[in-house]
Every structure is written in structure tokens, then in C-alpha cells.
Amino acid sequence: MRRVVILPFLCSLMFANELDLLQEDKKELRKIDKEIIEKKYESSKDEWIGKINLNSSLGKDHDFTHDKTGDMSRSLGLSFSQSIFESGGIEYSIEYARKQLKSDLIAWENQNIALIQAIYETLLAIKKLKLQIEQSDYSLKNKDIELILKRIQYEAGRVDITELNNAIMSKNNQQKENISLKNSLKEKEYELSKYTSLKSNQIEIIDFEVVDKEKFLKDNLNIRYENSRVELLDTSYKQLKSTYLPKVTLNTNANYRNNQNEDDRQTGAVTLNMSMPIFDITKDSKIEKSKLEVLKQKVNVKDMQNELEYEYEQILTQINSYDEYEKTISENLKLYEDLITANQSSNAAGMSADYDLEILQNTQKINQYDLQINDINRKLQYTKLYFKTKANI
């Protein structure tokens, strides 16, 4: 059987392989999206380069004063205009294209990670539901025993109909929970099929370890993206300021003109033009707006870092809670182990009923499943740390 591994350390190279988890259409979409980003960069970085234009005309003059038709004329020309100095504007234009590429690639990587995270969390949810179904079966066995005992006690006149009815309802509720869990499992398996054609048992997930706070903040994908936006907006601000400074443009043209009664004419020219805006009523407001956008984005990054610090502490608190749950469950398991050992001895001596031992053994199993389910809950918290860090771009 083919098995694919979801690795605990995420980087671009590994994601190139992990995208194989996706359905073919989704995988193709991710590749096309990246190609679009790269083509966008190739176009943007060369936008400052001038274009060569071809011009042609065909015409005939008519003199209304003398009612005389003029000569047929034809012309063909090539022109080229190139900005050769923009007070840093050309460099900022190229730099802006680079910053946009970086920002777009980080966003693309984040989207990849979101898809892998969705698969990972769905796999954990499926595993958890399977454990809960098995656990619920043992609970149902106990409910069956409790109902049998209540019926015996009712027939012996030791309990009233209310207690027997409560036992019946308790069993019914447990059966309903079983059905609900199985339906939830089908829904999660369907959800997984939206992302990948692989079955849950064909994908192996490796446990994560704790991510330290410094790494969580430093390599956080959202922070990396927002920082790239700061760089992009800052470059845009510098580029805008350069448009109000001197600019030098090289213009060239070559023309060919043919007239019926004149000699053909071939002309050409090369000129250097210097221009600079001396008045624009919107200049100050435009520049100030662009500057404020940079400032706002920097504040946004700091605000996000503060929120992430709180989120990190919140996740760790929840993980610690699951660690405490594990200790409690382990203590319960030790207690049930002692009770089962004692009950087995008394049962062998005919001092206790078989039902008592079976209830204890089933309850022990239920607690063992609690231990495994608790571990999955802890893994789900780890995903909130790992799938938000590290994009090697």
C-alpha cells in the first residue's frame, strides 16, 4: 500500500513533495498559481524598459480653394522612447517587483500550508472519532450490564420503575451517541476526500515537538507576510516620491515618407528630454498617504506580534492542561488495575459477581481510550504552533 508521510518540519523543499498529497486538480492549481506569480514578476521588473512603436499612414490632400486634389502620400516610421534617469525611480521600480514577488510567494506558501494543515487536522479528527467509536462500544457494554442489573433488581422489587426506565434511556442515549459518532466519521472521511485521493490509512503523521516562543514569533508565516508588505509599501512610497523629481528621457525616431510628386524623404532624430513636475496640488496628500500606509503596516505587524504572544501562551496553557489530564487518567488506570486484580481474586473465591469484574474491565478500557484521545487533542494544539511557522523563501 502506498503511504505518504506528513513531516514535522516544514520548508519549501518538503512542501514540494507534500503537495503530492493533494488531488491532481488542486496540485495543478497550486503549480499554475506559482507560475502566474513568476510571470507577473518577469513582466513587472522590465516595465521601465521603453517600447518600440511602428507608425504608418496613407493619405491624400485636397485644396478646396482651388478645387484641386493633392498628391497621395505614404509614410512609415519607427519610434522609441526610453527613460534613462528618474532620480532613483527606475531602481525602485525593479525593487518593487522583487518585493512583490517575495510577498506573493510567501502568500502562496501560506496557502499550501493551510491545505496541508487541513489534511493533518482532518486525519487527527478521523483517528479521534475511530477511538471514540471503540470507546463508545465499551460504554454501551456497561449500559447493557447496568440495564440487566436494574431489570433483575426491579423484578426482585428492590428498585422502582423509574430507575429501570433511567437505565433504558441511558442505553438508548449511548446508542444514539454511537450512531452520531459514526456519521461524524463519514463526514470527516468525505472532507478528507476533498483535499486528497489518498485514504486516511495511507497517510502517516509524525508527532511534533514544542516550538519555542522566539521561533514561533520570528518564523511565523503571518508575520513574515506582513513584514513583506511593509517592505513593499516602503518601496512604493520611495517610488512615488521619485516621480516628483527630475526625469531624463531618450527619444529616437526614423521616418520614411513617399509623395507622388516629391522625392522620397527619410528622416531620423535623437533627442534628450528633461522633465520635472513643478506644481501638483495633490502631491503632498499623495506622499503623506503613502507614508501613513507604511506606518500603519508597521503598527499592524507589532499588533499582530502582541496577539501571537497571547495566542502562544494560550496554546501552551491548553497543552499543559492536557498534560495534567494525562496524569489524572493514568492515576485512574492504576486504580482500576488494582480494583480489577482485587475483584479477580474475590470473583475466583465466589465473593463477587462476574458483572462487577466486566464493568471494571470495560471502564478501564474506556479510560485507556481517554488517554489516546487526550493525546490527539494535544497534537491538535501543536498544529497551531507548527503550521504557522517556517516558510523558507
From TrEMBL:
GO terms assigned for molecular function: efflux transmembrane transporter activity
Domain of life (superkingdom): Bacteria
InterPro entries registered for this protein in UniProt: OMP_efflux
UniProt xrefs under Pfam families: OEP (PF02321)
Family: Belongs to the outer membrane factor (OMF) (TC 1.B.17) family.
Listed name of the protein: Transporter
Biological classification of the source: Bacteria, Pseudomonadati, Campylobacterota, Epsilonproteobacteria, Campylobacterales
